[in-house]
Design goal:
The structure holds two protein chains of two kinds.
Chain A lengths: L4 E3 L2 E4 L5 E6 L6 E7 L6 E7 L2 E5 L6 E5 L5 E5 L8 E8 L9 E2 L3 E5 L1
Parallel strand pairs in A: 2-11
Antiparallel strand pairs in A: 1-3, 3-8, 4-5, 4-9, 5-6, 7-8, 9-10, 9-11
Chain B lengths: L3 E3 L4 E4 L4 E7 L6 E7 L6 E6 L3 E5 L2 E6 L4 E6 L8 E8 L7 E3 L3 E6 L1
Parallel strand pairs in B: 2-11
Antiparallel strand pairs in B: 1-3, 3-8, 4-5, 4-9, 6-7, 7-8, 9-10, 9-11
Classes of the chains: A mainly beta, B mainly beta.
Chain lengths: 114, 112
């Protein structure tokens, strides 16, 4: 069974730039959720994709957007980067036939905005 | 009031003792509850899920849920230095969207 993978591992951008983060879900999972984790805090829900449609969104501005592809992999796009966007971005997959409500996280992408 | 609250710690426990981690949540309609372990610099790892009132045991871990008191806890028996990590409590309010709301985490240190 292949786990959740994310790329890149680390990324450094400057304020105002755009970034795309990628996630491959665990085999057998059809749902991908994205979270932002600031240092010393718990993860915060950004949005979730199920069968290529957005299925719930947290309190994040529209410059945070996403996609899910037919193979259930997903992208998180952030436009007009701000310093406060510096965080660990986590992708979680779920929706397998067993334990469908449980979310399993990938290793994360550490984004630094200068 | 935060939706999910945890004592940030640090909580220090001697090796071999029982570590007790607590979490309260504000939404009475919450459906499912999870404990994640996060080592420094790593991503969260799911260690327990619980959906019904009572206790659920898995190896050295026991999750306890009391929906009337809006309280969920995690007990770690025979604590080991490798259990030193931040423990995150997460609550899912909606079966459909599976949106997890996390507490800020409790930092646990097991002293040899």
């Amino acid at each position: 069974e292949t786990g959740v993978t994310q790329s890149p591992t680390h990324l450094i951008k400057t304020r105002g730039q755009q970034v795309t983060l990628r996630c491959s879900s665990q085999s057998g999972h059809n749902t991908v959720s994205w979270y932002q984790q600031a240092l010393g805090q718990g993860p915060q829900f950004i949005f979730q994709y199920y069968r290529e449609e957005e299925n719930g969104r947290g309190n994040f501005p529209p410059r945070f957007s996403g996609l899910q592809f037919p193979n259930y992999s997903s992208e998180l796009n952030v436009n007009a980067l701000e310093l406060d966007d510096s965080a660990l971005y986590l992708c979680a997959s779920s929706g397998g036939s067993q334990r469908y409500n449980e979310q399993f996280f990938g290793p994360g992408t550490r984004l630094t905005v200068l | 009031q935060k939706e999910v609250e945890q004592n940030s710690g640090p909580l220090s426990v001697p090796e071999g003792a029982i570590a007790s981690l607590n979490c309260t949540y504000s939404d009475r309609g919450s459906q499912s509850f999870f404990w994640y372990r996060q080592y420094s610099g790593k991503s969260p790892e799911l260690i327990m899920s619980i959906y019904s009132n009572g206790d659920k045991e898995d190896g050295r871990f026991t999750a306890q849920l009391n929906k009337a008191s809006q309280y969920v806890s995690l007990l770690i028996r025979d604590s080991q230095p490798s259990d030193s990590a931040t423990y995150l409590c997460a609550v899912n309010k909606d079966w459909g969207a599976q949106k997890l709301v996390f507490g800020q985490g409790t930092r646990l240190t097991i002293n040899p």
